[in-house]
């Protein structure tokens, strides 16, 4: 077993064991905290697919995170009130249906955004994805139907067949399982023909085109896949907070997702998990220590970029292995 | 709509564009020469505004404050370049995004730590108070005309600096070939520090100028930073000329959009709703413009040949 | 050479490309017939790279046509031209540097199979990719270096890997851009021998500075100077051509 | 046996004794407010006003844990979860912004916690969705706008009204129009966080309006007022009180002079409670209190008053005590409506310079015992 696999297994076990222990000790809050880590890790995992494997530095993934969140919020609001959304289509409070809608909506939007953005590259790509996310953000802020800036409350957490989702541990387990499935999917894609083409396109676009693989279609597919995973995380996040607002769409959120990926290790399978765990832990620990916690957070992030190249997994599991 | 109002709005758009240009010029210069994407540019804008407000409050002179804003922002920029940015030139854009994102947090909270949580007071100098008559009957604040003039001066100054001076020659050399310039015997490290400080000083200057008409507060640089990204992306990253035209385009589109869209929509909807829908559409307008420009010209209107 | 008059595989007609006032490609007409090696030579700055860029689709010509197996490919993307059978190597090795030599070739095999939208089957356990790729590496004598990242190969090995990747595409026409560059004497000789046999698989448009290799291998030679073809003929004809001697070979003869 | 009984009696006596002392049962308050970023000033005033009342009460059994929400709704939710599930607080308070409040309150009350709002008062929680456990000690968001509408009806025929394009902005203009009977020249919604108002000011000049009502909180208001003063446009400006509150006045400077606003309180109120509040606040923090400080001060007074009479563990009794609003508020009349939002007087104030400091001067009373438009939909 490689050192990285060992670290990965440790991370997976720790993320499961901590909330189980907290739950046994009656500390429900730490279950919530672990759920938050799992969901943010899932969102960052989505970004890692585009950013880590494809080299597509999307500074607009908050758009997909928020779209997932709003899919959950809007469906739940209608499911709760019984009013149809459009053309007699009903809302729902069933998580699996919500997830499908979130994923599908994000895929459509990502297809549009990606088709335009992927015509550019480098800094232009960073900026144009940012701009598209801002467009969605301002739309959400000024669109009155679903609360605008005030956001939308999900009064009762949505349901999952056979489980009481209001029990924190149950909801954590749902998120944890989805995270593990997504990680497995990420591993499969990374090792697949598609993954090979995507990673090759990141390293040498001309080479890939010269052997007859169009980088655009590969990247667009990766971008859409990436968006759907982040959107799924968004839907779960709305259920965790029982609330969705435009701040899920803000450029700070996009920045945070990038931070999670880099903190954990770009392109690493468990990078997002490590990154999310560390970030949430910092936010939690520093927030109660000092009013100026963001200053300290800034210093830590800066230190990580400058001195810990390869992120946490780079630090503990050594350099990334390439087959 | 009268002629006077249209003229005034056009001037407003021009003035917003000039303001954006002052910020965007530094950003695009830094990218053009060093290939660095600097999210913390808005923080230097904030430094300029706070320096100006603090010194103006202390000495009673806006002009001393303005000088301080240039000096402080340039100094802050130079320090940041020496301590942090220097290590990022050979990194990819991803690391640059993260590091400068971290710098935003540090600058914002550092400023709040120094100056407290409440907005500072900064007013325009007595010399520039008041308004002038416009042809057609409108009035226009002298201060805003002065900003347009300063922007024009800076644009000309940059043109001369880059086109006619020794430093400018080195900057151009740095833009076209980063390895080459070292071979020419130019001390590239000093050049980079100087360029970064120059870009920062421009940000600080615009921070001070804008600070007099807005709220000098922590986080003031962020909304304008994003607008500036839109500007330089439309203009072509690295191109000063592109930044100027992009800034004017964004300034005029944004102002005229805010002004005209609600009126257009009012033809279709009742006034209260038209206001809301118009507000929503106009707040997205410049991003739509940007997407359209990039869909047609993926590297902006004036892409520098080498990037 | 029975089929000298056969339909050319690659046919370039009246190609023109301007950069501002500079005419980099000036009405180039060139063809590549089945089974032949057609060498393209010319001094530095003659416009060879610009021409190759246009053939491969990384630059778009201002006018003129490019046909591959009778089909006009002049408006297609680089990837589409490759899929239609244009196999190109680079003057400066262009590889997927983090991938092993094997994976570089496997990627080309996968491209040839048009199976890049497979999401689940791990490539490293996929014999339909590994076997053909290993076979090609063996053919070029690179099998023992198959698991090394491309970035860690020697210069000569990288040049060979370039050719291996192109072989995996089973192209209709090879476009080899200075394959001998920096190969050393031994390497050049071995490669010359290899290319000599390769022309049976598909014709080769060979851009090369190594005149020994050119005159050994080429069935025909074209000379490009200032963006124009000033002469086309057999090695002997080119050697004797007075225009070529003054413009290009003069200082060497 | 005998021993046992004696012990039981002693324990009982002891517990009676302590409950006689009234604040023996510890009360833990969780304050979530904005202490970093551009909006930190409001959070700092909220915290300081609240802590002043706690300190003045002398009640040693009340503890307050404070955390910064960085003006992010998701972070506020996380902190609320932590305070409820981990710190075991009894009462939550302190959120400045409506969108953060909407994120936190439904979850908090669902978990059986009391929430006493020090500022944000969205319409969504005042009407049909009101909650037994949710109190607002400040106002209902619409109140101050309604008051300006009432005031403007008397003196102005044609008003230009402007607010940011978000729910509080729409509520604001809706509230204004609810009481304004004159003509609305234009109703303009600006981008949230907009900093340049040249285009809107030009429209104001051209509109022929004889009065302008703006609702632009925080930095937006500062920017607007400065630019308006610089523009040379001479139309009178009015707005809700917090647009000209003590936290922003120094930054606006003389540009604010003469601006009319509505408020449930101003620092010059001539009653003992107000004078004590202002002097205590100045002594403690070396600055004038803003309206946010006042609202938080009253929120803390309410909690303190209830804690003095009953244990927070008995939620119903505690809630009943809160509802009685047995406090002496610096704003004068204060009682709770059926939807647990204030019924109070609302005044017209004007920005003046007094002893070299910009402050609000009370001009006249606009509304007496004013409630809100949503209470009728609240079934408590």
UniProtKB/TrEMBL annotation, chain A:
Q: Where can this protein be found?
A: Cell membrane
InterPro entries (UniProt xref): ABC_transp_permease, LivM-like
Task: Name the major location.
Answer: membrane
The reply to whether Cell membrane figures as a keyword in the UniProt entry is yes
Q: Which CDD domains match?
A: TM_PBP1_LivM_like
Which Gene Ontology cellular component terms are annotated? plasma membrane
MF term (GO), any: branched-chain amino acid transmembrane transporter activity
- Where are the membrane-spanning stretches? 36-56, 63-81, 93-116, 123-146, 166-189, 220-238, 258-280, 292-317
Give the way it sits in the membrane: Multi-pass membrane protein
Any idea which UniProt keywords this protein has?
Cell membrane, Membrane, Transmembrane, Transmembrane helix
What Pfam families does its record include? BPD_transp_2
Provide the protein name: Branched-chain amino acid ABC transporter permease
TrEMBL record, chain B:
Entry's transmembrane regions: 16-37, 44-60, 66-85, 97-122, 142-162, 190-212, 224-253, 274-296
Named from the GO MF annotations, one term is: transmembrane transporter activity
Family indicated by similarity = Belongs to the binding-protein-dependent transport system permease family. LivHM subfamily.
Q: Would you name any one GO CC term?
A: plasma membrane
Query: Which membrane topology describes this protein?
Result: Multi-pass membrane protein
Q: Which organism is it from?
A: Rhizobium deserti
Which domain of life does this protein belong to? Bacteria
Where is this gene product found? Cell membrane
Q: Which UniProt keywords apply?
A: Amino-acid transport, Cell membrane, Membrane, Transmembrane, Transmembrane helix, Transport
One GO term under biological process is: amino acid transport
Presence of the UniProt keyword Signal in the record? no
Name of the molecule in the record: Branched-chain amino acid ABC transporter permease
């Amino acid at each position: 077993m490689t050192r990285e696999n060992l670290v990965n297994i440790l991370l997976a076990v720790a993320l499961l064991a901590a909330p189980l222990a907290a739950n046994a000790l009656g500390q429900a809050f730490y279950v919530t905290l672990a759920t938050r880590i799992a969901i943010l890790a899932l969102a960052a995992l989505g970004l890692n697919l585009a950013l880590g494997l494809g080299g597509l530095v999307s500074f607009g993934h908050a758009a997909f995170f928020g779209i997932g969140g709003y899919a959950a919020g809007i469906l739940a609001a209608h499911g709760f009130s019984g009013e149809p959304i459009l053309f007699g289509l009903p809302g729902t409070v069933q998580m699996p249906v919500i997830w499908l809608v979130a994923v599908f909506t994000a895929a459509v939007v990502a297809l549009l955004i990606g088709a335009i953005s992927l015509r550019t590259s480098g800094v232009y790509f960073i900026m144009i994805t940012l701009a598209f996310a801002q467009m969605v953000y301002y739309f959400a802020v000024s669109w009155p139907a679903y609360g605008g800036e005030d956001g939308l409350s999900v009064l009762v957490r949505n349901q999952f067949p056979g489980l009481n989702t209001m029990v924190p541990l149950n909801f954590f387990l749902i998120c944890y399982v989805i995270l593990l499935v997504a990680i497995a999917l990420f591993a499969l894609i990374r090792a697949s023909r598609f993954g090979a083409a995507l990673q090759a396109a990141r390293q040498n676009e001309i080479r890939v085109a010269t052997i007859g693989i169009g980088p655009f279609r590969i990247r667009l597919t990766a971008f859409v896949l990436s968006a759907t995973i982040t959107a799924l995380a968004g839907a779960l996040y709305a259920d965790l907070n029982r609330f969705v607002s435009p701040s899920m769409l803000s450029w700070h959120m996009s920045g945070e997702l990038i931070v999670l990926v880099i903190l954990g290790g770009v392109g690493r399978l468990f990078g997002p998990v490590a990154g999310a765990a560390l970030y949430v832990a910092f936010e939690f620990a520093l927030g109660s220590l000092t009013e100026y916690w963001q200053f300290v957070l800034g210093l830590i992030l800066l230190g990580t970029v400058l001195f810990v190249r390869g992120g946490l997994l780079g630090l503990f599991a050594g350099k990334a292995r390439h087959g | 709509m009268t002629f006077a109002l249209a003229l005034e709005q056009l001037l407003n758009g021009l003035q917003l564009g000039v303001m954006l240009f002052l910020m965007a010029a530094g950003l695009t210069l830094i990218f053009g020469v060093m290939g660095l994407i600097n999210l913390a540019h808005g923080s230097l804008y904030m430094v300029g505004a706070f320096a100006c407000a603090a010194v103006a409050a202390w000495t009673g002179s806006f002009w001393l404050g303005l000088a301080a804003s240039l000096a402080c922002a340039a100094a802050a920029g130079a320090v940041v370049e020496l301590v942090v940015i220097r290590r990022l030139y050979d990194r990819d854009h991803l690391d640059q995004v993260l590091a400068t994102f971290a710098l935003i947090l540090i600058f914002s909270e550092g400023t709040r730590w120094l100056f407290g949580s409440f907005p500072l007071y900064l007013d325009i100098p007595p010399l520039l108070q008041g308004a002038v008559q416009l042809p057609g009957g409108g009035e226009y604040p002298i201060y805003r005309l002065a900003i347009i003039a300063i922007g024009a001066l800076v644009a000309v100054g940059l043109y001369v600096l880059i086109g006619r001076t020794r430093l400018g020659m080195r900057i151009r050399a740095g833009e076209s070939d980063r390895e080459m310039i070292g071979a020419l015997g130019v001390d590239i490290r000093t050049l980079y520090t100087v360029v970064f400080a120059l870009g920062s000083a421009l940000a600080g200057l615009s921070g001070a100028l804008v600070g007099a008409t807005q709220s000098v507060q922590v986080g003031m640089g962020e909304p304008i930073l994003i607008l500036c990204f839109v500007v330089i992306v439309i203009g072509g990253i690295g191109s000063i000329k592109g930044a100027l035209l992009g800034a004017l385009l964004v300034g005029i589109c944004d102002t005229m959009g805010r002004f005209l869209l609600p009126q257009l929509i009012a033809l279709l909807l009742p006034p209260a709703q038209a206001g809301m829908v118009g507000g929503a559409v106009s707040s997205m307008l410049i991003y739509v413009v940007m997407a359209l420009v990039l869909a047609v010209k993926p590297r902006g209107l004036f892409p520098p040949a080498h990037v | 050479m029975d089929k000298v008059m056969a339909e050319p595989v690659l046919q370039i007609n009246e190609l023109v490309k301007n950069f501002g006032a500079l005419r980099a490609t000036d009405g180039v007409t060139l063809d590549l017939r089945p089974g032949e090696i057609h060498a393209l030579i010319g001094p530095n700055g003659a416009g060879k790279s610009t021409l190759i860029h246009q053939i491969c689709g990384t630059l778009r010509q201002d006018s003129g046509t490019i046909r591959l197996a009778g089909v006009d490919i002049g408006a297609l993307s680089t990837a589409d031209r490759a899929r239609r059978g244009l196999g190109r190597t680079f003057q400066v090795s262009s590889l997927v540097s983090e991938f092993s030599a094997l994976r570089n070739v496997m990627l080309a095999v996968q491209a040839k199979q048009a199976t890049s939208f497979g999401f689940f089957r791990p490539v490293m356990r996929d014999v339909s990719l590994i076997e053909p790729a290993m076979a090609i590496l063996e053919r070029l004598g690179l099998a023992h270096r198959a698991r090394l990242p491309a970035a860690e190969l020697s210069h000569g090995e990288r040049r060979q890997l370039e050719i291996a990747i192109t072989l995996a595409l089973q192209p209709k026409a090879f476009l080899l851009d200075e394959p001998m560059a920096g190969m050393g004497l031994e390497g050049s000789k071995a490669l010359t021998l290899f290319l000599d046999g390769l022309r049976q698989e598909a014709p080769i448009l060979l851009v090369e500075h190594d005149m020994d290799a050119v005159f050994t291998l080429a069935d025909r030679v074209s000379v490009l100077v200032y963006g124009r073809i000033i002469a086309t003929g057999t090695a002997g004809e080119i050697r004797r051509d007075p225009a070529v001697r003054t413009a290009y070979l003069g200082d060497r003869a | 046996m005998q021993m046992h009984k004696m012990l039981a009696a002693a324990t009982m006596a002891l517990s009676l004794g302590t409950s006689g002392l009234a604040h023996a049962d510890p009360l833990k308050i969780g304050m979530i407010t904005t202490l970093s970023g551009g909006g930190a000033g409001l959070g700092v005033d909220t915290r300081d006003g609240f802590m002043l009342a706690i300190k003045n009460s002398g009640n040693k059994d009340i503890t307050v844990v404070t955390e910064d929400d960085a003006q992010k709704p998701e972070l506020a939710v996380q902190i609320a979860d932590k305070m409820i599930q981990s710190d075991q607080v009894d009462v939550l308070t302190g959120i400045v912004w409506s969108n953060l409040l909407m994120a936190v309150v439904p979850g908090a009350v669902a978990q059986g916690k009391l929430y006493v709002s020090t500022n944000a008062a969205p319409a969504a929680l005042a009407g049909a969705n009101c909650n037994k456990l949710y109190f607002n000690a400040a106002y209902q968001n619409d109140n101050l706008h309604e008051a300006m509408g009432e005031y403007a009806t008397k003196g102005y025929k044609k008003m230009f009204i402007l607010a940011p394009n978000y729910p509080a902005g729409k509520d604001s203009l809706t509230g204004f129009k609810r009481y304004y009977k004159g003509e609305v020249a234009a109703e303009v919604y600006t981008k949230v966080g907009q900093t340049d108002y040249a285009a809107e000011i030009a429209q104001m000049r051209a509109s022929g309006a004889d009065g302008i009502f703006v609702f632009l909180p925080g930095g937006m208001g500062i920017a607007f007022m400065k630019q308006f003063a610089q523009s040379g446009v001479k139309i009178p400006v009015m707005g809700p009180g917090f647009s000209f509150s003590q936290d922003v006045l120094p930054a606006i400077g003389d540009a604010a002079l003469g601006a009319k606003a509505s408020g449930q309180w101003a620092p010059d109120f001539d009653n003992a409670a107000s004078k004590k509040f202002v002097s205590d606040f100045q002594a403690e923090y070396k600055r004038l209190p803003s309206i946010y400080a006042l609202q938080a001060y009253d929120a803390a007074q309410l909690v303190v008053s209830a804690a003095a009479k009953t244990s927070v563990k008995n939620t119903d009794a505690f809630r009943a005590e809160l509802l009685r609003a047995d406090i002496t508020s610096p704003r004068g009349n204060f009682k709770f409506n059926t939807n647990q939002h204030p019924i109070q007087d609302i005044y017209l104030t004007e920005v003046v310079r007094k002893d070299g400091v910009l402050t609000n001067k009370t001009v006249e009373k606009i509304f007496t015992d004013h409630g809100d438009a949503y209470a009728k939909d609240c079934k408590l």
